[in-house]
Amino acid sequence: MRRALERPAGALPVATTAPLPKARRLAGVAAMAGSGLSNQTGAAVGALAFPVLGPLGVVAVRQYVAALALLAVGRPRLRGFTWRQWWPVLLLAGVFGMMNLSLYSAVDRIGLGLAVTLEFLGPLAIALAASRRRLDAGCAVLAAAGVVVLMRPRPSADYTGMALGLVAACCWASYILLNRLVGQRIPGAQGAAAAATVSALAFLPAGIVVALRHPPTAGAVLCAVTAGVLSSAVPYLADLMTLRHVPAQTFGLFMSVNPVLAAVVGWAVLGQKLGGAEWAGIGAVVLANAASLATTPA
Asked: pTM of this prediction?
């Protein structure tokens, strides 16, 4: 279960399972809180640039920033890669770009909180599918009930936005599986850095077209760059420290709070308010994940 909740940030070290001093654990929790808040704040700030750049333009800039951050850390030796290493890297690059594009497009249509909640079904589905426990089956039913509440028929429902959120969920699930494969075949963060670089190059033509059709303002570019830093570089570096200071199960449990953080940040930064039914749906997805994780043997 805990491996299914890896953040889309590259090949991270395995979380510790040994007891740690209280001060170090508190530092790890603080890093997790900062990482989650940074990730969701970055997405919200990026959404501020949608009127000028659109989701495609913002994602393009985010991919550029992610590539620069991961290149600095991973320093991949691209010339030494074999085809056996390249093909999962290329698939990972495609999934990485589609994941962010579908998520940001969903955020543009249905808001940050609902989009992130639907996206979170990806890693949750992988974790539950790998289990044979009755409790996890119950968690799957609870999560499904939450999705039904979120996607219930109503005049204001944006089913295209919801579908994009589910596409992002499928992409995140694929990202996790491919990231594991890349990590097995390429040492360190080289594979993740290579995939981010290929994805950034693929978005280069799109970024040029967006810039020519809709000349960007300085404010819009700043928001897009900030989104890249807060949603890619900061979480990656924070997770590098976190996974050395907290148990894997604690890390996974805290990640389940991300949909709630997204809803709160969406309300605070973007003014996106949710009704009681939406909060109930988000709560069901979070509870399903947390219950499954909390009862998973270490």
From this structure: 0.84
